[in-house]
């Protein structure tokens, strides 16, 4: 993502958070699961397209898809980068059928889905490092790439154990963080996904899109993002009302940044789309974006707000 100030595989196979005894809130049991997902992702190392970590992450996502999704698909494509170079990329879409809202018949809800998205790739180079020798090294991306992916991975298990009323699609985007500074080689996976939507009946498009990115840092504070506010103020207000009702102080109902991220391709399609992000992160695009900068409490707080939001839209 680009922004400006404005004002190893499955380690938790048998872990079943929904079944933990003595939990007053079912989502509380997901705290450890979300963290285990993030630990596993970071253990794979840098996860930029073409790397070993990228291949391991794809296998990890596919395993979760097989376990929990009602259906899923891999969206393989080739992006043109650099001087006519070809970059193989892979999006993953996990679908959870709706059980049907009040008055709906037929066993599952065929209304337009809610799309929850996150990019799983990490930056191939640490270009925000001050040391030129470090700038060409790939980052681990614990927060930038890892945190949003961990939340979607945990959401897959939650939706399996707690089927949603309306359909939900979890989409893991590739190639969000590939481009060099000043290039247009960002958001490659979400842009491709949005382009494919144009070939479908608009009545089947997502009703709303919610993208989570860089939400795992300690003491996370998520301000309202400007493009989201301009495009989907009602949807954004719903999310922040959920946070208020839950007593979640991680969400700050003030505008702070304009951030170019995976929500933009859907905004261009005039789909109400919101980005949740904490862009006050000093380790952005550096080698210091590591697991120790993140917190399971931050992941859980965002997870709980997203879960409740799905019930209200």
UniProtKB/TrEMBL annotation:
N-terminal signal peptide: 1-21
InterPro entries linked: Peptidase_M28, QC/QCL
Location of the Peptidase M28 domain: 107-308
Keywords on record: Acyltransferase, Signal, Transferase
Pfam families in the cross-refs: Peptidase_M28
Protein name according to UniProt: Peptidase_M28 domain-containing protein
């Amino acid at each position: 993502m680009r922004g400006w100030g404005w004002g190893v595989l499955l380690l938790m196979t048998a872990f079943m958070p929904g079944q933990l005894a003595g939990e007053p809130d079912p989502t509380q049991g997901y705290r450890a699961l979300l963290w285990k997902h993030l630990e596993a992702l970071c253990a794979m190392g840098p996860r930029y397209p073409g790397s070993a970590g990228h291949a391991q992450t794809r296998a990890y996502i596919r395993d979760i898809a097989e376990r929990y999704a009602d259906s899923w698909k891999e969206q393989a494509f080739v992006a043109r980068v650099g001087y006519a170079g070809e970059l193989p990329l892979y999006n993953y879409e996990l679908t959870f059928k709706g059980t049907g809202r009040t008055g709906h018949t037929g066993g599952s809800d065929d209304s337009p889905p809610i799309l929850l998205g996150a990019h799983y790739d990490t930056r191939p180079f640490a270009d925000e490092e001050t040391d030129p020798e470090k700038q060409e090294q790939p980052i681990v991306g614990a927060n930038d790439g890892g945190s949003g992916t961990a939340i979607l991975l945990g959401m897959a298990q939650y939706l399996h154990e707690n089927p949603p009323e309306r359909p939900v699609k979890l989409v893991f985007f590739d190639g969000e963080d590939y481009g060099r500074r000043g290039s247009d080689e960002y958001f490659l996976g979400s842009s491709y996904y949005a382009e494919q939507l144009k070939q479908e009946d608009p009545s089947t498009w997502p009703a709303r899109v919610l993208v989570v990115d860089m939400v795992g840092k300690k003491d996370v504070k998520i301000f309202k993002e400007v493009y989201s506010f301009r495009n989907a103020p009602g949807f954004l207000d719903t999310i922040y009302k959920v946070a208020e009702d839950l007593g979640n102080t991680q969400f700050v109902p003030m505008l702070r940044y304009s951030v170019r991220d995976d929500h933009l391709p859907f905004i261009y399609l005039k789909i109400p789309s919101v980005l949740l992000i904490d862009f006050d992160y000093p380790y952005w695009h550096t080698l210091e974006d590591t697991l120790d900068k993140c917190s399971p409490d931050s992941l859980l707080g965002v997870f709980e707000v997203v879960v409740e939001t799905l019930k209200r839209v």
